[in-house]
Amino acid sequence: MEAKVQYFVRKNCSERWHLEPETLKFHDLTFVIRGSAAYYSRDAAHIVEAGQAVFLPAGGFRCAHTRGMECAAFNFAMDAEQLPLSAPGVLNWGGDEQLMRYFAEFERAWTGLDPYQELRCQGLFLLILHRLLELAGQRENPHVSEIRRYLERHSREPVTVAEVAAHLGLHPAYCGALFKRETGSTIHQALNQIRVNRAIALLSYGGSRVGEVAEEVGFSDIYYFSRVFKALTGSPPEQFTR
């Protein structure tokens, strides 16, 4: 497996920091160490908190903003058949001390004058990627991961806990309780969050009215959509239009 890091930065970002909309020519993997940020892919918003990382693949759309964060960001190239990540998304790394040490070591290698700098950075980045995948795989119950995937695939449709449970072969009461225990949210709340994240991306991208976006992401009632949107973001959907 080979990966070439094209750009690396570890920095503190103020509330004025943002990334302009662009189509990526590289894979973007950003670890949030402190604070939070919102990254937007083509049809979704990825809210990334401290202890999480966001992956956005080459060829996709990206823009982002924050109210303040510390991050370690890698732009890299890797053959598609070797890349262990494919879809845009958020992964948990939990502020892992080993990863923090890797970040510090990578920063020293990246800014140093070692004649084998490129080889050393490649090796360290692969260690970082491996550790992230190891941590992300350990931190979520497989049933919860499958529930998330089901909600992502069917978020534009009416979804019930009974349908999700039937898909997993679980009792509805157990399915709902498991998801709540593991994530702190109900399945219905998670579904609304997915819909609102997509709505933010569509509204921010421009060219769509609020009612059109509400219907596109799975809300049949624009007034209910507006209530849910404001409850989850603190702002009405009109504030995100361009």
Task: Note down, in words, how this protein is organized.
The protein is of the alpha+beta class and 242 residues long. It contains eight helices and seven strands; from the N terminus they run E-E-E-E-E-E-E-H-H-H-H-H-H-H-H. Strands 1, 2, 3, 4, 5, 6 and 7 form a seven-stranded antiparallel β-sheet that branches. Helix 3 crosses helix 6 and helix 6 packs across helix 7.
List keywords for this structure.
242 residues, alpha+beta, 7-stranded antiparallel beta sheet, 8 helices, globular
Summed over residues and divided by their number, the pLDDT gives a mean of 89
Summarize the helix and strand pattern as letters. Answer: EEEEEEEHHHHHHHH
The assigned structural class equals: alpha+beta
Helicity range: 40-55%
Beta content: 25-35%
**Number of β-strand runs:** 7
Number of helices: 8
- Low-pLDDT stretches are none
Separation of termini?
41 Å
- As a whole number of angstroms, the C-alpha radius of gyration is 19 Å
Largest sheet: 7 strands, antiparallel
Anisotropy-based shape = globular
Summarize the structure.
The chain is α+β, with helices and mostly antiparallel strands. It has helices at residues 97-111, 117-138, 142-154, 161-168, 172-183, 187-205, 210-217, 222-233; strands at residues 4-13, 18-23, 27-40, 45-49, 52-56, 61-77, 89-92.
